[in-house]
Amino acid sequence: xxxxxxxxxxxxxxxxxxxxxxxxxxxxxxxxxxxxxxxxxxxxxxxxxxxxxxxxxxxxxxxxxxxxxxxxxxxxxxxxxxxxxxxxxxxxxxxxxxxxxxxxxxxxxxxxxxxxxxxxxxxxxxxxxxxxxxxxxxx
Length: 139
Ligand code: NI
What we know:
Elements: E1 4-16, H1 25-32, E2 41-53, H2 65-80, E3 83-84, H3 98-109, E4 117-126, E5 129-133
Parallel strand pairs: 1-3
Antiparallel strand pairs: 1-2, 2-4, 4-5
The structure holds nickel (II) ion (NI).
């Protein structure tokens, strides 16, 4: 079945610290290394939002990009930009890894796609770290 996707990219800057209260300090240090340093550190994150859908024959488009952009800005960029991810309520008991950030972004956006459906979330954390998440489709 032929299919179309569009991927939009969004940027925000945020701090985080890889740490879990479930484990003792020395184990945190061993697992997360310098990413466990107490004061945290920052990243210039890029989030990729991939929408899959049917082509509208009149417009040649699969979704309303302007509306998608507004929603992602409001729900993702404005929420996380220049924040410390560990202070976000969603990360109170969840380690702020790229894996978990991608999953959270999926969960926030799953019912916010103007038309088409959310197909994948990508999170670029560093030059060498790119995380992707494909969650359950919208119920
Ligand atoms: Ni980091």
